[in-house]
Amino acid sequence: MKSIQYDASKRGLEAIFKPWQTIVLDTIHGSSKGLNSRAVTEEVKKKIGENSISRASIINFLEFLRELGVLRGEDETGKGGHRWVYFPAIGKTQYKQFIVETLLTRVTDEFPAEMKTALEQID
User: Fold this and answer.
1) Tens-digit pLDDT profile for residues 75-99
2) Domains delineated in the chain
3) Distant-in-sequence contacts of 106-112, Cβ < 8 A, 24+ apart
4) Contact indicator for 58, 44 with CB cutoff of 8 Å
């Protein structure tokens, strides 16, 4: 299974994703229709610069999100062959909840006694 990484030195979604990755998420969630990797790449490059990120990196990230269940993909046939069209599988609030649950589960699995103590101190 794919996993998420958390950088405690950063805040918000930037603790999980690179800035261009948050643009990818916002682009998919902001669209009323599914988007292929070309459309997503064009939007990212409009926002952060033409030579900022490769389409291959964006495709890899889209596939990572699809495998996590954050996005869903539909195979589309068109000129040039098959391609994925990506849609949100869950909303923004739900993927934030997914991140929290994933991280808490990981920490609880690795440090069960310490997690229990920490949660008791929070209450």
Assistant:
1) 888 787 888 999 999 998 998 898 8
2) 12-90 (1.10.10.10)
3) 106/3
4) yes
